[in-house]
Amino acid sequence: MTNDSNMDLLLARLEAQNELLVKDSKRRATTESEMDRAIGHAKEESPGEDVDWDYWGALMHDYNAVVKRNPKQLTTMIQKGVPSALRGLIWQLLAKSKDTQLEATYAELLKSTSSHEKQITRDMSRTFPNHEYFQADGVGQEALFNVVKAYSLYDTEVGYCQGLSFVVGPLLLNMPDEEAFCMLVRMMSNYEMRGHYTPDMSTLQLRLYQFEQLMEETIPLVYKHLRNQGIRSTMYASQWFMTLFAYKFPLELVFRVYDIILVEGIESMLRFAVALLKINHDKILGLDFEVLIEFLKNGLFEPYMNDAGLFIQDAYNVKVTPKRLAQYAQKYQAMIQKQQAELAAEESLRESNRQLSAHVRRIEGSLHQLNKEHVDLAKELITRKVEMAELQDQNDVLTQKVSDLTRIVDSQAKEVEEQYKGEIEDVLRKNMEYLRKNEQLEDQLSYMESLLVETKMKYAESEIERDNLSRKLSDMRKALGMA
Amino acid sequence: MSQASDAAGHAASNMKPVQVKLVLLGEAAVGKSSLVLRFVNDEFQENKEPTIGAAFLTQKCRLEDKVIKFEIWDTAGQERFHSLAPMYYRNAQAAVVVYDVTKASSLEKAKSWVKELQRQANPNIVIALTGNKVDLVSERRGQRNSSDGEGEDDEESDAQELDEDEEDDEDYGVSRQVPTEEASAYAQESGLLFFETSAKNGKGVAEVFTEIAKKIPLEHILSSTRGARAGAGGSNGRVDLQAGGNGQRLGGQQDKSGCAC
């Protein structure tokens, strides 16, 4: 039911494919003997164009039955390469991504606006800028924008991460955008690619770790050399893993990588990564840091340029078992836990350090305060000392003065006494004089008094005489009057 | 060694190039990779792929009697790659922090990089703040007032995508959003070198590196990095002094850029 549209497309493509088949069979007929020789020579290795249309046709008609019947055949066939005309359909079968409901969701999402839109828009012209299909304003670029934008809305934790558009590009070169969207969703979830793009990029870190471990195990000299040169896998391989090699590698190789990843799982990405270093083993050992880092990014795929088959073959020769990867993952988790524990310890140390620092600051504050007080006190002490010294000086001066004064006083007392004695004697002398004068004056006085008495006596005598005379006068008057 | 000798000619005593580790930081799509490409190859690519992880390039140049070899780590700008940055700036002697003059928020991002560098990088790191994409704003527009002449030189300006991020508005025409004075004042108060550049037409690009070379204590580096030098992230990484590939540009670069260094 749900496969109707899928089948239509499939049939349509098969029909087109049939035409090719007809041509091809003619060609084949002419080269039958060559083919036989080649297949006989190296059945599994043959990278040639010996497309087994019967197999692919049967696979597409009834994928599950064909795979169930002979799963090993599928991987063998895939390793030989999916016919490019069928690639989009085979990929979807491998990823079991066909999902009409999800396609409807996609159509809905396209109507919304993503907060990442500007950033996505900006990166569109920067994704496969030299690829014809993805030129500005072309359908390819529009489809790319739509798928990436829809995904940013579909998975908000991942949103948009640079690198994603490089993963979508190869899908769009093999299928319409709604199918590419479904493929992307499957690859992100079922193939655990989400963790390459989530903010913590946790799975990416794990893959890089597994990659380095694999390297150490399979190509120890290269591993050691890179390490000695200070080159970490993040410096060159994160772009491989975040774009499934599409960032720099030729797309024919990238498609083949997709073929394998979709059938085997994302871990097979590690096979390719190791194979790339392995085939360049000797060259790498001869290069130093800066040339090497350039080479790791742009030169590694050179030997596989026209031989994708060899690339696949070499990748398969890299021994990668799920068990081993799980061990690495465990080791990685342990390392991460240890790191986190260390980080936590560091953080708690930092925290206690912060607290201690605060404590120190506080103590320093009070020390400072104390210092200030100390300084103040010292200053005061000094002031006091100075004052005291001054007072001492003053005291000395005063003492000196006192003693001077005492001396002066002592010496002066005699002078004064002598002075006074003289003065007293003078006074006494004067006093004596005054006494003498006084006596004289008293003598004079008594003399005067005696004179006065005498006078008074005389006055009284004269008074009496006057009275007598007055009486004689009045007697005479009377006598005269009577007369 | 031989290339350096050829290029530096007479100054035989100072043939050993002084290695200067430099890191480029800044928001996505401000033109970090384009600046480096201009400096190293004197080229400009219209739609340069976003840098995923980081890229490493080198370029030699001359300053007075010394040959300086810049070892440049060009980092990815998207915020998600932020946690990887310390690996690249940890041992750097110089940093070019790039913003886009047509995008105000990119200066804010640049400031936060500067802050991070000042807190966590080598304490003597020489930081150059660089406003890129000045080719997109004409002189007139350079004076803040963008009301006029919006459409005139769009045909060349749409070359470098302006765009971007989440928060800012539609701004395709290209008005300058970061006035020179504002960024320059910030640079001055934070002790940064300051430049405005166009990776597209080459304006100011060589100066960024020349001035950095002048400001870096070269003698110190020369004496301290002899022998053991660390590649980014690796304590024992060594870089080949003989240098192949990129180092060869010394002569040509001098001619083209007129760079004294």
From TrEMBL, chain A:
Entry annotated with the keyword Coiled coil: yes
Residue span, Rab-GAP TBC domain: 81-265
Superkingdom in the source lineage: Eukaryota
Transmembrane residue ranges: none
Annotated coiled-coil segments of the chain: 329-479
UniProt keyword terms in alphabetical order: Coiled coil, GTPase activation
Entries under PROSITE patterns matching the protein: TBC_RABGAP (PS50086)
Pfam families named among the record's database cross-references: RabGap-TBC_2
GO molecular function: GTPase activator activity; small GTPase binding
Protein name according to UniProt: GTPase-activating protein
Source organism (scientific name): Mortierella alpina (Oleaginous fungus)
Automatic annotation (TrEMBL), chain B:
Coiled-coil intervals, chain numbering: none
Any Pfam family hit: Ras
Disordered, as annotated region: 138-178, 226-261
GO molecular function: GTP binding; GTPase activity
Xref: SUPFAM superfamilies: P-loop containing nucleoside triphosphate hydrolases
Domain of life: Eukaryota
Signal peptide per UniProt: none
UniProt keyword ATP-binding present: no
UniProt keyword Nucleotide-binding, yes or no: yes
Regions of compositional bias (Acidic residues) in chain numbering: 149-172
InterPro entries: P-loop_NTPase, Small_GTP-bd, Small_GTPase
Record's keyword terms, sorted: Nucleotide-binding
Gene3D superfamilies assigned to the protein according to its UniProt record, in alphabetical order: P-loop containing nucleotide triphosphate hydrolases
NCBIfam families: small_GTP
Stated name of the protein: Ras-domain-containing protein
Organism name: Mortierella alpina (Oleaginous fungus)
